[in-house]
């Protein structure tokens, strides 16, 4: 069921991306030859309306839009053949059609966040907020918390030491102070994960945090979150803020990864592919519809940024071609464009193989 949910999320987001290209092409007078759900080979044709074939294809991992003129991408269409061709459209229109897919993913992500906040998407709040929960926001590899099996999303509901003294105020600052007072001593932490309650012993240790080696720590990041359902207007505001933050964070992360890749020391171990999404969605599903909607929104915004990477197989690469033609006022030679596209596809395949390998290692671990 989790795998099916992952496929459903990816199909909706990728088809939504292609729908952006489709709508922009139609509005700008470029003929759409085919709008396909899934990838070829074709399973069957739904029908033909407005000069466009609508198809269902066998590989259920997304969708595509085929524009008239793409099959003659580097050849000059003549006479009536130029009518409604993507290659005869002004360069600004070609760029707008390409950007429309990215814009659609941003709009979908924002809309999913609106729905998520209205359904109780967890939101970080300040200490003292009524009804807030203390939640694990990250676990340091190799730390006592990691050894105890804590995971992001665990809700801490009780902390007790060997004498029976409990932490009365469950906040990040109170937890830090409690841990510092119990360095080298066993404490029992009770938490909830997917409606199941567990208690594990943990011993705060020194040198867990490299820059604070003298302080006892567990190696866990904590946050206070609230799952209060927000009204529509409040959800619009929160969704806009969250969308802006995620776009900024993902954009910075992608730029950092590309910078590291140029110097051959990019770390792809934390990049998640379709296989890794199965584990993430499985963890998220237990926390309600709001969490699933929030995760889908996050993936949609990631797709928007990734598609802007200037690799020929992505929209960003095709935008680079358009920019080149606008600056030089001449088309890219056919052989050069085909070679760059092949290199782009090869890079994507290598990247997917590496990412999938790390996903499988994480799942087995």
Textual characterization of the structure:
The protein is built from nine helices and eight strands. The protein has 365 residues and is α+β, with helices and mostly antiparallel strands. The strands form two sheets. Strands 3-8-4-5-6-7 form a six-stranded antiparallel β-sheet. Helix 2 (91-118) runs antiparallel to helix 8. The chain starts with a helix and ends with a helix. The model has no long low-confidence stretch (mean pLDDT 85).
Q: Which key features would you list for this structure?
A:
alpha+beta, elongated, six-stranded antiparallel beta sheet, two-stranded antiparallel ribbon, 365 residues, 8 strands, 48% helix, 9 helices
Question: Quick summary of this structure?
Answer:
This protein is an alpha+beta fold.
Q: What's the gyration radius in Å?
A: 25 Å
Strand order of the largest sheet: 3-8-4-5-6-7
**What is the average of the pLDDT values?**
85
The outline comes out as: elongated
- What series of H and E elements makes up the topology? HEEHEEHEHEEEHHHHH
Overall helicity: 40-55%
Class by SSE composition = alpha+beta
Number of strands: 8
Question: What profile does the largest beta sheet have?
Answer: 6 strands, antiparallel
**Residues in β-strands, percent:** 15-25%
Taking the alpha carbons of the first and last residues, their distance comes to 21 Å
Pick out the low-confidence regions. Answer: none
User: What is the tally of helical segments?
Assistant: 9
